[in-house]
Write a sequence for this structure.
């Protein structure tokens, strides 16, 4: 059975309903009250949290037993033809990692790039160069705890299908660089299908029993294709239950961050399904 950390991407709906100006710490407390044990802090529109605020959030999370992760800004493209955009992308990653380290987050997740004129192989090399620069920066700045997570992407013009993401992470061979699976992205990129067992087997082939950090949401079929627009999990595109069933036979630690619009409400539905198949939510301390 899998050992699971489970929670929402961002401040829970219930926390916002209870307090109009709910912040990260309110969200962490609500996650704990709801019976979940993880939360991803969303910097997707920019890093607007001070280092001091990140440290405060981390202290509360540790006290309550909630595992934190971070999603870096969307405005990152390590394959841009414009040097200024690449430099700005690296800067956003550095800011995100600094705050992630301060709060004791496990991973900073980011969307690496668009292929653009470089094409898949040229972009692979550009992303590798960018990540190696970040690895050097992490070493120089004492970033030792948080990892940098390259997310598997949904669109065919984006760098990051399963194979190239896994290959790049293994190629870099650094313990603080990891792959992040978004199950909905895999489903969309595959044209509306996913073989959870095949993905898990591929993970073991590349990374053995390394802990997994993953995202889950359902996606929308629009204008003849599957697109990365988030839907509630009851839409079953992809279905969550087969993943819970496959995880029951896995001796692995996995974090599942729910990115559906229903945040903690869908995460609690996932919890019910996971427990039905004898998976274990890691005990809240």
């Amino acid at each position: 059975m899998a050992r699971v950390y489970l929670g929402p991407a961002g401040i829970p709906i219930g926390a916002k309903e209870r307090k109009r100006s709910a912040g990260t710490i309110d969200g962490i407390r609500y996650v704990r009250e709801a019976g979940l044990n993880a939360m991803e802090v969303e910097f997707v529109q920019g890093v607007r949290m001070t280092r001091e605020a990140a440290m405060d959030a981390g202290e509360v999370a540790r006290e309550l037993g909630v595992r934190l992760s971070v999603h870096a800004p969307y405005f990152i493209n390590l394959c841009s033809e414009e040097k200024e955009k690449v430099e700005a992308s690296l800067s956003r990653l550095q800011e995100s990692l600094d705050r992630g380290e301060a709060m004791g987050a496990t991973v900073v997740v980011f969307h690496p790039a668009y292929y653009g004129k470089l094409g898949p192989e040229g972009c692979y090399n550009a992303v590798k160069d960018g990540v190696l620069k970040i690895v050097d920066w992490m070493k120089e700045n004492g970033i030792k705890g948080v990892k940098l997570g390259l997310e598997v992407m949904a669109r065919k013009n984006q760098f990051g299908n399963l194979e190239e993401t896994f290959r790049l992470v293994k190629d870099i061979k650094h313990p603080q660089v990891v792959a992040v699976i978004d199950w909905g992205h895999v489903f969309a990129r595959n044209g509306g299908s996913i073989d959870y067992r095949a993905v898990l087997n591929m993970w073991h082939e590349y990374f053995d029993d390394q802990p997994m950090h993953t995202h889950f949401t359902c996606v929308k079929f629009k204008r003849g294709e599957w697109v990365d627009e988030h839907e509630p999990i009851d839409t079953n595109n992809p279905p969550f239950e087969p993943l819970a069933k496959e995880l029951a036979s896995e001796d692995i630690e996995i974090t599942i961050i729910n990115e559906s619009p229903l945040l903690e409400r869908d995460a609690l539905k996932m919890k019910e399904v996971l427990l039905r198949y004898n998976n274990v939510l890691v005990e809240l301390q």
